[in-house]
Backbone:
């Protein structure tokens, strides 16, 4: 199948834009690879260095001391509070066994923090969430800095964790890297039922005990949350970029198939190192084509808005420069072929059973919407990535998945999509640039003109709602929520309240320089608005009653204020002193001070030595 002309054009534009950064990155990776010629990486260490490196290696000591076999560095985000990562507790033992059986070895190179946005939603800790991604990237680099490793396995699933792991691993892009997830928890209380209880609670119609019962029935066991938010969007992107063993994303934890896939990842990591017979360094797997595949897969599945930020930073770490125009243009030619909550009623297990990511990739390949020729870590290309794993007795094998959707209410072919365009849009106008997720927003709610109600925090809006002062049509403006202001926390706590207002007949929307989560819902939300208020962006000039227009179809966000009045208005900065301390926020001042814009990836990492952003 010929590549779609828009996909080809956007890819070429990204290639041309990225020439200096990509060339610099690849030159650094080539030098690192050259430094690793002639045997395992550890052989270049001094005797004292090496002795430290294998001192606690037990049965692997002889191999690490004098052998020529590869050594896998495991970077793990395991903790037993985060349900998606709790199953990874035993992975290192399984990986070490698999590596030994394959003639190599494996060591836990280091651990990275893994906060749960589900626990911190609406809490102070959420102000550390976005910056935790950069912290994870740095922790990944620290973990791999010992130069003991010939290949890498990254154990992680959730929101900031997979992007952070990839950003950090790309600094070691001369090594092959495979991502190893844990899979989703089995289905519990349906997401639709859970959302209904949340909305009733916001309206004062359900008790806290009823709400807790619903939440506990939904989030009920080890594994990733089952809605199609940022964590599961991560897994879609890893498949679309070829960083998983095929079909790994949505196999449930604690199953023989899940363990077999983890073993296979360890074996393959050794096979694709410089010591193996099919060298596939990360720097070659992640290129402009892989990043385009990730953007298209997000659009086709109605993926998380958070990746309008994370994917930019991930690409930048590989020397690939993308922006929201690229995402918007690709989304407009990519049919929406998945309905999973919040874009539908199905959870991720239903999606997987209906055909899952393999069906989606095959449809996108056949439609010419993705690059099929990327060098995936499993040794093949993207068409092989779309295959389905299964156990033949105890042997892991792959086969072609279903040729047709097994449930067209959940996943459809490109020829018969839910919508002819994808789920993500860039909006721009005299209020700046932002992102809108329209896949869960009914067409009649995708355009609004209404007076502004200005708030400096989500709690202020919730108090106004409880006081009964949010009447009539309105656009709620919550500013001072960008990365420089307070770390850009998600404002997901607003979703039930805004939905309740819309359900009672009000025309409402949200405009913010903050984030919503991958579970952003049915209310029109223009988010990630840049320049942010803390940088003196236009959003900081808005006043109560200003007429704002948000048109997701046309891609515009504008305020109707006379030019002379607008020019004369002073920028209003909220009082952010309370956001500077407590819950560790004082330790992240350097990140708030030098973080880039949301469209540049919301990262504090990409700085030249002269301390100017590059």
Residues:
């Amino acid at each position: 199948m010929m590549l779609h002309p828009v996909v080809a054009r956007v890819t070429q534009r990204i290639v041309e834009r990225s020439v200096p950064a990509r060339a610099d990155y690849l030159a650094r990776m080539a030098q690192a690879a050259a430094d690793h010629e002639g045997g395992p990486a550890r052989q270049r260490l001094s005797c004292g260095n090496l002795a430290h490196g294998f001192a606690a290696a037990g049965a692997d000591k002889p191999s690490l001391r004098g052998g020529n076999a590869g050594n896998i560095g495991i970077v793990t985000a395991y903790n037993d509070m985060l349900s998606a990562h709790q199953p990874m507790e035993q992975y290192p033992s399984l990986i070490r066994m698999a590596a030994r059986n394959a003639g190599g070895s494996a060591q836990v190179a280091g651990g990275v923090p893994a906060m749960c946005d589900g626990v911190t939603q609406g809490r102070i800790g959420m102000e550390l969430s976005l910056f935790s991604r950069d912290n994870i990237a740095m922790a990944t680099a620290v973990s791999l800095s010992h130069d003991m490793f010939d290949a890498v396995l990254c154990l992680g699933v959730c929101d900031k964790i997979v992007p952070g792991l990839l950003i950090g691993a790309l600094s070691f892009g001369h090594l092959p890297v495979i991502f190893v997830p844990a899979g989703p928890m089995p289905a519990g209380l349906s997401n639709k039922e859970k959302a209904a209880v949340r909305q009733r609670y916001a309206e004062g119609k359900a008790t806290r005990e009823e709400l807790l019962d619903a939440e506990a029935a939904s989030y009920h066991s080890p594994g990733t949350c089952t809605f199609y938010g940022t964590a599961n969007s991560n897994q879609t992107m890893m498949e679309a970029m070829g960083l998983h063993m095929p079909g790994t994303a949505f196999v449930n934890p604690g199953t023989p198939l899940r363990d077999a896939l983890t073993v296979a990842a360890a074996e393959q990591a050794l096979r694709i190192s410089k010591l193996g017979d099919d060298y596939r360094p990360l720097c070659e797997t992640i290129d402009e084509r892989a990043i385009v595949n990730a953007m298209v897969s997000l659009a086709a599945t109605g993926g998380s808005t958070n990746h309008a930020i994370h994917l930019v930073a991930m690409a930048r770490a590989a020397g690939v420069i993308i922006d929201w125009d690229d995402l918007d243009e690709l989304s407009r030619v990519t049919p929406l072929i998945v309905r999973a909550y919040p874009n539908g009623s199905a959870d991720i297990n239903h999606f997987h059973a209906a055909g899952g990511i393999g069906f989606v990739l095959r449809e996108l390949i056949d439609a010419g919407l993705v690059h099929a020729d990327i060098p995936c870590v499993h040794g093949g290309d993207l068409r092989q990535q779309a295959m389905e794993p299964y156990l033949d007795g105890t042997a892991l094998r792959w086969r072609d998945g279903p040729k047709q959707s097994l449930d067209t209410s959940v996943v459809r072919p490109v020829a018969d999509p839910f919508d002819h365009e994808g789920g993500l849009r860039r909006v721009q106008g005299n209020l700046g640039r932002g992102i809108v997720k329209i896949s869960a927003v009914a067409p009649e709610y995708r355009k609004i003109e209404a007076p502004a109600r200005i708030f400096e925090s989500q709690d202020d809006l919730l108090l106004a709602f409880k006081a009964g002062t949010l009447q009539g049509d309105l656009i709620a403006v919550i500013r001072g929520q960008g990365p420089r202001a307070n770390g850009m926390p998600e404002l997901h706590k607003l979703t039930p309240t805004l939905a309740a207002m819309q359900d009672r007949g009000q025309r409402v929307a949200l405009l913010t320089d903050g984030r919503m989560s991958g579970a952003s819902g049915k209310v029109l939300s223009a988010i990630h608005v840049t320049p942010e208020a803390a940088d003196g962006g236009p959003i900081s000039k808005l006043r109560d009653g200003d007429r704002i227009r948000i048109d997701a179809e046309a891609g515009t966000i504008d305020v109707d204020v006379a030019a002379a009045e607008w020019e004369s208005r002073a920028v209003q900065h909220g009082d952010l002193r309370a956001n500077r301390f407590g819950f560790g926020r004082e330790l992240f001042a350097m990140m708030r001070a030098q973080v880039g814009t949301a469209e540049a990836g919301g990262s504090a990492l990409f700085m030249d030595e002269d301390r100017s952003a590059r």
Remarks:
- The first helix runs from residue 5 to 35.
- The chain has a mean pLDDT of 93.
